[in-house]
Amino acid sequence: MSTAHLRLIAVAVTAIAAALTGVATGLVATPAEGESFAVVPALAGFGGAALTGAVLVVLLIAATKRPGTQSAAVDAESAETIRNLTAHVDQLGADRSTLVNTAVYVRDRTNSKAIADRIGATLHEVGVVTLVPTGVAFDPQHHEAGGHTPAPDQQSVGVIAAVEVPGYVDRGTLLRAPVVTVFRGREA
């Protein structure tokens, strides 16, 4: 938000505060006989609040217009903070990548189905999708053929029979294509 916007907000808040002070004073003060609202105290309350607010707005404007080294120091400090945060975010991304790759490595090599399932669920929670394309047509752009087996019928030729090693996609980026066994036609 720019300083011009802040000044405008300060002026608006001052005007509203002055009006509310005037109304509150007019309602609380003892009105003249036959009146339900004390006009003179209300005007005094409004004037006092408006004067106080105007002085504060002038001080705010003077403080924001004053050129000096403080503004340059704040800009340099902000730039340094942004550089530090960017480096920290980059490091967090690298750390995440290392953890995801390690989890995939451990999941592929564990002998416990319960551990493999738990690691798979955790990977899914952080945005990693496990690719197990059994029963779909083999596509060399998305699958790696690890072997083949005779097809039980002609419609199964070229279809993935089994997944030897699952593949993984992390937030839209392919980490590893699944290694699959493909049905092939019977040789004559």
Walkthrough of the structure:
Keywords: Chaperone, Membrane, Transmembrane, Transmembrane helix. The chain crosses the membrane at residues 39-62. This is GrpE protein. GO terms for molecular function: adenyl-nucleotide exchange factor activity; protein homodimerization activity; protein-folding chaperone binding. The protein has helices at 3-28, 39-65, 69-109, 113-125; strands spanning 128-131, 144-150, 160-165, 167-170, 173-176, 179-184. By secondary structure, it is an alpha+beta fold. The chain folds into three domains: 3-66; 67-125; 127-188, Nucleotide Exchange Factor Grpe, Chain A, domain 2, CATH 2.30.22.10. It has a three-stranded antiparallel sheet. It has a three-stranded mixed sheet with strand order 2-6-3, with no helix packed on it. The longest helix has 41 residues, at 69-109. The model has no long low-confidence stretch (mean pLDDT 85).
> How would you sum up the global shape?
elongated
Oligomer: single chain
How many domains is the backbone divided into? 3
* Straight-line N-to-C gap: 77 Å
Largest sheet: 3 strands, antiparallel
Lateral arrangement of strands in the main beta sheet: 1-4-5
Low-confidence stretches: none
Structural class call reads alpha+beta
Q: Topology of this structure?
A:
Blueprint: H1 3-28, H2 39-65, H3 69-109, H4 113-125, E1 128-131, E2 144-150, E3 160-165, E4 167-170, E5 173-176, E6 179-184
Parallel strand pairs: 2-6
Antiparallel strand pairs: 1-4, 3-6, 4-5
Helix pairs in contact: 1-2, 3-4
Defining traits:
Nucleotide Exchange Factor Grpe, Chain A, domain 2; 6 strands; three-stranded mixed sheet; 188 residues; 3 domains; 57% helix; 4 helices
